[in-house]
Specification:
Length: 384
């Protein structure tokens, strides 16, 4: 007796929604209420909030505003708690925080039709997103990124992640959030260093997809250095647009293949973050990683010198780093420690090593091996 195999394709339509607003928790701003009520429900919509402690400290009115908002919309909405969590990478390194979130979800009877709302930097969104994607196998999740990096890149994607054994994002899932709300008012309290971190992900996406956007960022360098809201907001909006379009149209939203253009410059960046014990922020590390892969593209004869100069000048002009002493760290067998980032990147992607490089500004291509000597020369030649 033989049994025929059973196979069926499953197509699941996802809607990747990024909404833009200012002061989402003003009682006369209907955006969040309408979002929470956009799906049919027999009862008031339950929501539990997780706030980045740094954001809450910089916005002391935030907790009372959320309470007032839910009170104002009491007929439709049901607030099940507001919890503060530590900011930045430490939250992604400690499983106690995940356990805390799971426990609160269970205690508050947050079901698959309820909402887990996260407000904060990329690290908090990654952690809460992971909890939302895994508790009950997936609770509706709304993200409010509060950094330029989050609003333009980290927060608008479909990934979440948690660090394990010192490895960035070793644990995580692909889970499109119910919606992303980019509230520009949060950027008013964001420290300058973090404002700049979002600039580099915009430069990255311009380098791999859109030379015109790169020209625009160059033309706005003074305005961006002065943190003029119009320039910062346009940069964030265009960056988010590119990231979402890439995810939605590249044919590989859940990264089944090994091609990862949005990770241009990231193989070295992830390693640097780790080597520095996260002293170097993600944005700073990406700036250095992009500088390395730009110089490498030139040394291999792919990219012309004039483009290299433009890229390095723009990074420097926006006061982002192009070098860190951690790049000189050696392993026990006297190898350059940054180079181990290549193999770790391959492991993380799975399959064949695939690195995105540049042919021109706005035009990328992929290679499957890198010349170690030329990487080391690129590191030597970094502006410092
Ligand atoms: N999931 C993804 O696809 C993806 C993509 C890129 C990056 N990431 C992750 O994102 C993280 C980096 O995120 P990040 O750059 O947003 O930094 P972050 O989460 O480390 O936060 C930066 C700091 O700024 C503070 N802060 C945030 N918003 C503020 C505001 N509006 N006002 C005052 N202070 C504020 C935070 O409290 C924190 O101290 C990294 O863990 C990275 O791996 C994830
Ligand atoms: Zn990044």
């Amino acid at each position: 007796m033989t049994f025929a195999s059973i196979e069926h394709a499953i197509a699941i339509p996802y809607q990747l929604r990024v909404l833009f607003t200012e002061n989402a928790f003003a009682t006369d701003n209907p955006l969040l209420r309408n979002l929470l009520c956009s799906k049919e429900s027999g009862s008031r919509r339950k929501a539990i909030f997780y706030l980045d402690e740094g954001v809450a400290a910089a916005n002391p009115q935030l907790v009372p505003q959320i309470q007032a908002y839910f009170q104002h919309h009491n007929e439709d909405l049901n607030l099940r708690g507001i919890h503060l969590l530590p900011a930045g990478e430490p939250i992604k390194n400690n499983t106690d925080y995940l356990k805390e979130i799971y426990a609160q979800i269970e205690e508050q009877k947050i079901c698959r039709h309820s909402y887990l709302i996260a407000i904060g930097g990329g690290a908090l969104l990654d952690t809460v997103g992971f909890a939302a994607a895994t508790a009950h196998r997936g609770i509706r999740h709304i993200r409010f990124p509060t950094t330029t990096l989050g609003q333009g890149d980290a927060g608008v994607g479909v990934k979440n992640g948690f660090n394990f054994r010192g490895k960035k994002n070793f644990v995580g899932t692909f889970a499109p959030p119910f919606a992303v709300v980019n509230d520009f008012a949060f950027l008013d309290t964001l420290p300058e260093k973090h404002l700049r971190n979002g600039y580099i992900e915009a430069i990255k996406v311009a380098l791999i997809r859109d030379a015109t956007f790169f020209d625009w960022i160059e033309s706005q360098a003074n305005a961006l250095n002065a943190f003029q809201p119009a320039a910062v907001r346009e940069l964030v909006h265009r960056s988010a647009q590119h990231h979402v379009t890439h995810i939605a149209t590249s044919g590989d939203p859940f990264e089944m293949g090994s091609v990862r253009p949005l990770d241009f410059g990231h193989w070295a960046a992830h390693k640097l973050e780790q080597l520095s014990d996260f002293r170097i922020s993600h944005g700073e590390a990406v700036a250095i990683g992009i500088a390395i892969d730009t110089l490498y593209s030139q040394k291999m004869g792919y990219l012309d010198q004039a483009s290299v100069d433009r890229i390095l000048n723009l990074i420097t002009k926006l006061k982002l780093p192009t070098y860190a002493p951690e790049l000189e760290q050696k392993t026990a067998d006297q190898q350059n420690a940054t180079l181990a980032g290549l193999e770790e990147f391959r492991e993380h992607l799975g399959g064949l090593l695939t690195i995105t490089l540049l042919k021109q500004i706005g035009q990328r291509f992929e290679v499957h091996e890198m010349d170690t000597e030329k990487i080391l020369q690129s590191i030597q030649d970094l502006p410092r």
